Structure formats: structure tokens, C-alpha cells
Amino acid sequence: MASCGIISGIHTNLKAIEKLPISSPCFFRSSFGLEPIQRICIAPKRLAFPESTIIPKASSAAAVEDGSSQETAVPTPKVIIDLDSNPDATVVEVTFGDRLGALVDTMSALKNLGLNVVKANVCLDSSGKHTTLCITNASTGRKVDDPEQLEAIRLTIINNMIEFHPESSALLAMGEVFGAYQPNQKLDVDIATHIHVYDDSPERSLLYVEAADRPGLIVDLVKIITEINIDVESGEFDTEGLLAKAKFHVSYKNKALIKPLQQVLENSLRYYLRRPTTEESSF
């Protein structure tokens, strides 16, 4: 059975966590989040992504030599940013097995980004502890839909997770930059990259992207999509260990994407995600 509880108070006198800089400039020119999906949900609904990649898990030093199942694997860290489930707030879910605390330091760090955590819900089930945060802009009281702010939220949470749980850095792409331990393996970008566009309705299409994670990925994906005059209405961005999964509702002139435009979008994203890092640094 799963047990859930609501954190009613947010401690504001905790140690301030340094705001993470976002180096990418703002290229946001779409209607991202301005037309939220009208679905009323008490708790955020999880999206079933069509593709999955196996993430290597670190083995515990306590593993027995006879290969028995007594070893304790480090759980896969997950950060889910959801703009579809709640029309009034951006929903963020953080999971790291049963190792997470109350995340009060993380909530304090988010406040330093000019955000409010209006609700925090903790659920415990067989897969571990799931902390769900409903976040709004402190200045407007509205949900967060700017790509740079979303990426700042993601990096802040991951940075805090690595700080308080250093073992998580071996399973996160960000561990190579911020962590005490380097990732055990790196994903092959050609194998990890999956891009699909589906017909969702006459007014919009559903874009699914799966790729090796990297800092600034949310900003860059939205930039590429909007540069070919496609609007991003809403979506979800999941960080699962070394892997990033994104689902965006997209449209062109308030219509679903026709097949040739779907192909252009897929090709543009695939080129960006697979190109060498040396080429990225030259820009």
C-alpha cells in the first residue's frame, strides 16, 4: 500500500542554496504553457513514454560473491517536470528510492529562484518515496512555463540531490559536471536518441524525444522547435538517471503538423542531439 502526506509548512530560514547559472540565452518564442490542458487532477498523472532505455545501476560493495540478490543497488534518480497535470501550477516530482528526506533545502533553493512551492505531497510505495511539488512564479502566482526557468528548476533539484546524496552522481549525467563520482557509463547518443511525432488531434501533434541527458537540454529543445516556427503548447520533461525524456504538444498555425513538417522536425532534433560535443562548443 502507498502512503501519502502533505507538507503544510515551508521552512524559509534554511541555508540558502546557490542559484545555478543558465548559460543559454532565451529563445522562447512559442505559446508554451499559455494554453494549459484543461484536465483537473488531484494528483499528477504520469505519462507512459513509448520508449525505454536500460540505465546501468551501481552495485553495492556489499554484494555477495556467490551472485545472490542480497546486493543493494543505488536507485535511479528521477526528476519529472509536468506542465499538463495542473492548470495552475508546474508539478515537479522527485524520486530517489527511499533515500530522500523532506527536501526542505531544495524548496529553499527554489524560493531563491523567485518561485513558490504552494503544495508539497509525499507518497511512499514499493518503488520508494515520491515527493511532488506544485510550483508557481512568486511574482505572478502563475505556473512556470519559461524554458530557462524550467531548466533552472531541474538543475537546482539535481544539484541538491548530488550534494546531499553524493552516490546519485554516479547515475546522473550531471554527475560528470557537479558530482563527487563520475557516471559509471555514458550512453551512446545514437542508441539513446529516439524521436517520434504522433497525431494527437486536428489542432496539435505529440512530439516525443528521448536522448542522453545534458545541461541546458530543455532550453535547447524548445529553441530548435520554435526556430522552425512550430509552437510548443505544453508538455513534460523527465530526467531518469543518464536519460532525458520529453513530451511536447506542438502545433503549426493552430493545426497538427503535416507529415513533411513532422519529418523536418525529427531531422532537426536528431541532428542536434547526435552532433559531436566539439561542434557544440564552437558556437
UniProtKB/TrEMBL annotation:
Q: Name one GO molecular function term.
A: amino acid binding
Gene it is expressed from: LOC107774407
What's the protein here called? ACT domain-containing protein ACR
Stored InterPro entries: ACR1-12, ACT-like_dom_sf
Print the keywords alphabetically.
Repeat
Q: What does this protein do?
A: Binds amino acids.
Which species is this record about?
Answer: Nicotiana tabacum
Q: By its UniProt entry, which CDD domains does this protein fall under? A: ACT_UUR-ACR-like (cd04873)
Keyword flag Repeat: yes
Keyword Ion transport part of the UniProt annotation: no
